[in-house]
Amino acid sequence: MGKSKTSPYDDRTSYQLDYPPPNYRRPTRSAPRGVEVSQCTKFFLFFINVFFWIVGAFLLGFGIWGLVSKNGNNVSDLAEDLGIFLDPMFAFIITGSIIFILGFFGCIGALRENTCMIRFFTYFLMLIFLAEVTLGVLGYLYQDKLFNVLDSWFEKTIVLYLDDPDKQFIMDGMQEGLECCGSREPRDWENNVYFNCSSIARSACSVPFSCCRQQEGVINYQCGFDVLSMNDDDMAQIIFTYGCADAMRDWFITNGIILGICLGALILFQCVTICLGRSLVTDIQQVKSYW
Length: 291
Known about the structure:
Blueprint: H1 8-18, H2 39-70, H3 77-81, H4 88-112, H5 115-141, H6 143-159, H7 165-178, H8 232-238, H9 244-254, H10 256-288
């Protein structure tokens, strides 16, 4: 018997079975019921990062404004003691930039359900968390060295008090807030060329007004004039006689519990945020596995 011939219809049918038609759509798969991205986690993480995004932008803008207004000429000796040359406004710029970038990645990553951006946010936050814990432990273990650095900064700030607006602002704030004067005692101000008793300036044998025991609602900018030429008893009636280095040490000891609670709350908040980020990544990956 001869071979049977295949009809053109059979060829066409075979072609249609092997290859889908042009308008053919492969059926899509969806995640089963109960497997979904937690909207609560997603938007909670989103709004947290919106807040930090705004805070970072504010700190960044403030730092840039401060540098522009000062022309970026002043350098902080506190950072110099640690081996880093840093204008105080650079601290705002660096901190603001980190918070802004971190908030941006966390905000957009949570909103767009982008696992890469959320991972970046989570891992970067983990690095900050580890850095905070490390600095806290080192600060506790080497607190004597830390206070020695602080003493050195006070001494240099006194010398450059009228030559650096940043140091002047910080020193005045500390002396007023801690009710202290000088590094160890008020006579430390004799190390400043303008306050030294041998100076030809009107401020000779004087201290800044921030050392004075101000009356409520009244600021006398000349109250510290000539007080270094007085005896200790008369001096104590006009200005604070406790050194700022000792006052700062006492403040940390007195407020140690409050500082510990604040640091613990910050660490707890970071841990919760990290867990939320990891949970959101897991949810997104589970949903994508069914695509």
